Amino acid sequence: MRKKTHIGYFILPIIIGIAFLLSDNSRFQQRVMRPALCAFLQKQNIDVEIDSLRFKWHNASIELFGVHAKDSLGNDYLTLGKADVDLQLLPIFWKEIQVRSLRLNTLHLNLSNLPTFQQTPKAEIQTKKAFLINLHHVVLTGSSMYYRLPSPVNEDLEYIEATNLQAKMTGIWNSDYQEFSIDGLSFVTDNGFVLDNLALTASLENQRKLEVTNFEIFLPHSYLLSDSIDLIYQVGQKDSLQLLRDFCVYSTLSSEDFPTLSQIFEEAGLADRRADIHLHLSGASHHVVVEECKLEVNKLFALNGMMDIYQESAENWHIDSDWENIYVHTELVPYLQSLFPENRFDLPLIVENLERLAYSGSIQVYPQ
Asked: What are the start-end ranges of the H helices in 44-183?
């Protein structure tokens, strides 16, 4: 027995040494490791092709070149020039993928071809332990994104293409809990729209409880901020939305940051305008309460009040609202005419002479 034990101690380092030499061999990496990685990803319902890879044993890092992810029709929805992955190897044996750092360069994402990922059945989750994926540090540089609009706004706006896409991210994924954080997301679109920064921190528990603890959007002349948002939403059930607590949205939006809108105003000989918005919301999908609704557009339009929005179906809905003040200046009419040229906004002469209108009271809105 002792001799067999000593032989085992002698053979084990040899096996490890052979595995080390093979893993560092380029032919072994391309013919064995690359197909094995593609097969593993396919088991995760991700159809991926990889042109080549390079595994570095001394620091447990992988370089991937020419990554293509396809939908069910074989169309690319993701292509990636190069990915540098820095791993921790030991956690893989207890079904944990710990990524110390992930750098993605020249990623192109086609949202028009993005497949619909099916929700994992709870019975399967309970019987099969899924991998825990922990991304400690992700950097995205030199990338782009494309999306063809299902209903084009006009002949000049049939699709949206964003370039110079970059971001920093972290994330945790397992069967019943996902958490991710995005910071420094920025890009420029082909029509001149500029996103300076998007920051988002959110978690999803049991595929239904969503918590957003940080949400910020900054454009060159605009911003949108939100309080922490807690809600329950069952995937696939449109009427299951329920806010667990109320939250506020603060925003300043300038038409300068929206090239199509700014161009419409310029062609009509109108100046760019800014809107200041403050909303305080609560409720569920059937009954949304806007406890505080404030909107002001550069002395052209202002309102301050509250609304109750009821919706049983797409046809059965109504709005009850009470307003402390609604203010409208007649200079708003040219802006409405530029936005809706097919409609007429002829005002009675007495209203034009008044120049401005003010109202306080209740307003109910019902579908026709």
From this structure: 122-127
pLDDT tens track for 215-257: 999 999 999 999 888 888 766 666 667 777 888 999 999 999 9
**Cα 118 to Cα 132: distance, rounded to the nearest angstrom:** 18
Centre a 10 Å sphere on the Cβ of residue 253 and count the other Cβ atoms it contains: 19
DSSP 326: E
259-262 long-range contacts, CB within 8 A, separation 24+:
259/191, 259/192, 259/193, 260/153, 260/156, 260/157, 260/191
298-333 per-position pLDDT tens digit: 889 999 999 999 987 777 888 999 999 999 888 888
What b-and-e string marks burial along 283-318, b requiring 16 or more CB atoms within 10 Å of the CB?
beeeebbbeebbbbbbebbbbbbebbbeeeeeeeee
CA angle (162 as vertex; 156, 166 as ends), nearest 5: 165
Could you say which DSSP state residue 259 is in? H
- The winner for highest mean pLDDT among 68-82, 157-171, 346-360 is 157-171
Calculate the dihedral angle through the C-alpha atoms of 44, 45, 51, 55, rounding to the nearest 10 degrees: 0
- List the end-to-end C-alpha distance of the chain, in Å, as a whole number: 90
DSSP 106-127: EEEEEGGGPPPPPPPPHHHHHH
Distance CA 172, CA 130 (A): 13
pLDDT of residue 229: 84
Residue of 80, 72, 24 lying closest to 49 (CA atoms): 80
Average pLDDT, rounded, for the chain: 81
Q: How many CA atoms lie within 13 A of 231 on its CB side?
A: 21
* 295 and 321 Cβ atoms separated by less than 8 Å: no
**In the block, residue with structure tokens 């921790």:** 88
pLDDT digits 0-9 by tens, 67-87: 888 877 778 888 999 989 888
